[in-house]
């Protein structure tokens, strides 16, 4: 980890008056070499000791060839099998590269005392934070027991449903949540509960992708498979009672919960290697592996449960969508939001 704060963190520190800041990334330049037709084929999707797990938690659900969580079955639509876990680890690396080696942007990115990682998944972020901050006590929570057994001594993993009552008696000074799109029935309420579980002066940071995908030069058309895939995700989430809450509203959710000094930073994930800039080209390659490579797992339960599609219909649609994602003539990107705020020192 770098010894000094990144430019993102320096630029994004909240002011002492508790105002709000907003930082947007500029338009990405297109790689000159991308002029040839893209004829790529339709891609293919490429016990922990701290927690006592009951047999019911381990009784995973098998559906359409993928494995899903057992605790509060059906709440989370993404798989928890090896293929998805590999994708989650890749996605963690993509986020770290997006921030040039940083794990977070808020002032608690280093030096927090007690940290909660909401929806920890494979635990990659929590492990890295615990390693980098050995004095911190780090707790990672998820519906699935898919975390490794050998972890830093200052890290524990807990299996729990955070839509139920939070039962921690000691408050946190840093709560972190990443990629929570479609995970909760009422995400603003989760933010309020997080506020209540922070000590005064503590920080909440949210990192998330925004739908739909966008382009700055209209190469992504509304009738494209990629645009339609985004639209179907909104429909499926609504039908399942787990709406894709707009990431653009996160700063307002934090304000409504009582946070101050709210900062919003926007970044971009190109859908493939179409950018000219070396950094964005690298992010595009990682994004292609993350989203295009994992598209079937991201979609199969969403569309079969939420839209009533057959697995075959879903896979064919994903194959066409993947081709759009991999087409360097479509200069699309995913907006990525980093939003954080501070609980007032005067709050209880």
From TrEMBL:
Region (Disordered): 1-50
InterPro entries named in the record: SAM-dependent_MTases_sf (IPR029063)
Protein family according to the UniProt entry: Belongs to the methyltransferase superfamily. LaeA methyltransferase family.
Protein name, UniProt field: Methyltransferase domain-containing protein
Organism from which the protein derives: Fusarium kuroshium
Stored Gene3D superfamilies: Vaccinia Virus protein VP39
Domain of life: Eukaryota
Biased composition range(s): Polar residues: 7-19
MF terms in GO: methyltransferase activity
Coiled coil: none
Pfam families: Methyltransf_23
């Amino acid at each position: 980890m770098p010894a000094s704060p990144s430019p993102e963190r320096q630029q994004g520190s909240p002011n002492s008056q508790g105002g709000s800041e907003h930082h947007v990334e500029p338009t990405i330049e297109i790689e000159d070499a991308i002029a040839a037709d893209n004829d790529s084929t339709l891609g293919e999707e490429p016990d922990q000791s701290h927690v006592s797990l009951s047999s019911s938690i381990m009784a995973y659900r098998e559906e359409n060839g993928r494995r899903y969580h057992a605790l509060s079955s059906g709440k989370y639509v993404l798989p928890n099998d090896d293929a998805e876990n590999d994708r989650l680890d890749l996605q963690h690396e993509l986020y770290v590269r997006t921030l040039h080696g940083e794990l977070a942007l808020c002032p608690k990115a280093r030096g927090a005392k007690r940290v909660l990682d909401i929806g920890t998944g494979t635990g990659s972020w929590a492990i890295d934070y615990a390693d980098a901050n050995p004095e911190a006590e780090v707790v990672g929570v998820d519906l699935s027991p898919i975390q490794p057994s050998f972890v830093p001594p200052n890290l524990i993993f807990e299996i729990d449903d955070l839509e139920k009552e939070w039962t921690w008696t000691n408050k946190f000074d840093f709560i972190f949540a990443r990629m929570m799109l479609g995970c909760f029935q009422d995400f603003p309420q989760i933010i309020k509960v997080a506020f209540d579980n922070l000590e005064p002066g503590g920080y909440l940071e949210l990192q998330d992708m925004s739908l739909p995908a966008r382009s700055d030069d209209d190469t992504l058309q509304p009738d494209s498979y990629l645009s339609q895939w985004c639209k179907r995700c909104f429909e499926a989430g609504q039908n399942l009672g787990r709406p894709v809450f707009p990431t653009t509203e996160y700063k307002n959710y934090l304000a409504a919960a009582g946070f101050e000094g709210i900062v919003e930073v926007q970044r971009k994930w190109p859908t493939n290697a179409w950018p000219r800039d070396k950094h964005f080209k690298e992010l595009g390659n990682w994004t292609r592996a993350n989203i295009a490579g994992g598209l079937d797992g991201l979609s199969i339960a969403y569309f079969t449960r939420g839209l009533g599609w057959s697995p075959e219909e879903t896979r064919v649609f994903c194959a066409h969508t993947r081709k759009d994602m991999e087409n360097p003539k479509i200069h699309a990107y995913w907006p990525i939001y980093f939003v954080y705020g501070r609980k007032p020192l005067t709050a209880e």
